[in-house]
Amino acid sequence: MASRISVPWLLAGRLASSTGRSVTGASSTSPLSWTWRSAPRQHQRRLYSAGGSPSGNKDRVKFWPFLAVVAVGSAGYIGLVNRRKDMSRSIEAPPTDAGQLPAPAKSTPTFSPSDVTVVFVLGGPGAGKGTQCANLVKKYGFIHLSAGDLLRAEQERPGSQFGDLIRDYIKNGLIVPMEVTIQLLENAMTEALSKAGTSKGRFLIDGFPRKLDQAHKFEDSVCPAKMVLFFDCPEKVMEERLLERGKTSGRADDNAESIRKRFRTFIETSMPVVEYYEKQGKVVKIDATPSPDAVFAKTQGHLTERLGTDF
Q: In 3-state terms, what secondary structure has residue 23?
């Protein structure tokens, strides 16, 4: 005959185990009133056992579902970390364009300083770097490479995947990723020497490096610089020159807003480059406020002093 007994819920499992009786249902009047029914011990099962194992055996808990969940979760986390690393690398170094940009890392520079002379030409926007480079080309036969001109040409090149990127950087007065600029310079140097049919040459690289990491990367992968020409000019004078040039240049960055952004960028990023080379004794500082002819006369004197009369 069935008997009724009220017990706390947490003790129900223990009573079922010790008495060999199973819980069949709860009283309609009290959730803690349960009906117990006798059953042969050999057929008794513990209803609260995870594995439904017979009484007398140790409870068996199946852990493999938990292990599977942990394994899947770990694999997903590792995949997420790797994707974030790939995204970070893609931002720092843009993808290549038809095998041209950028070149893979090299153990030695492409050009030897015994064959190729590289002179960096630095100065704020509007300091007159382009004018002085044109004079040096006529007088000494330098090959003039303007980093800005190469970038502007690349942004207009049909099919260039970097066109929009370069256009946005230049318009906002920002520095284009160095992998792009350095590869464009190396390509231009290689092309110039190939056309001349020689492995020796002298290059004026105008407006580069704009940052210290660019200087290190260029010297490690392309060619060490012989010296740096730094044309120093007050910001007010440079702004007046650029605004005047903007009337006819058609350049998107020859406007007041872009000019001020370029000034800030130059002070924050390019001046450390000048200071770095100055510590190596490679910088020739030239006052760029006089007339272009006067500035060129000073430039000639410094070049002769540093490189000799027959350089």
A: strand
CA distance 275 to 192: 30
Q: Could you tell me the pLDDT band of residue 24, with boundaries at 50, 70 and 90?
A: very low
Contact 214, 122 (CB under 8 A): no
pTM: 0.62
Cα gap 44→16, rounded to integer Å: 9
Q: Which residue intervals of 141-222 are DSSP H helices?
A: 147-156, 163-171, 178-196, 212-221
**Is the model's pLDDT at 156 over the cut of 80?**
yes
- Looking only at the bridges linking them, the beta strands covering 22-26 and 283-287 are unpaired
User: Is 176 marked within a binding site?
Assistant: yes
Residue 127 annotated as lining a ligand binding site? yes
The answer to the question of whether 207 is labelled as a binding residue is: yes
Asked if residue 174 belongs to a known ligand binding site, the reply is yes
Q: Of 192, 172, 186, whose CA–CA distance to 260 is shortest?
A: 172
Residue 261 marked as a ligand binder: no
Task: Report, as an integer, the average pLDDT of 236-262.
Answer: 84
Do the annotations mark residue 200 as ligand-binding?
no
208 is in an annotated binding site: yes
Q: Is 129 annotated as a binding residue?
A: yes
Q: 109 among the known binding-site residues? A: no
273 labeled part of a ligand binding site: no
pLDDT tens digits, 51-89: 444 444 445 545 555 555 555 555 555 554 454 444 334
Query: Per the annotation, does 250 bind a ligand?
Result: no
Give the three-class secondary structure for 259. helix
Residue 95 known to bind ligand: no
Confidence of residue 290 (pLDDT cuts 50, 70, 90): very high
171 assigned ligand-binding residue: no
Please tell me the predicted confidence (pLDDT) of residue 76: 54
130 in a labelled binding site: yes
pLDDT interval class at 219 (50, 70, 90): very high
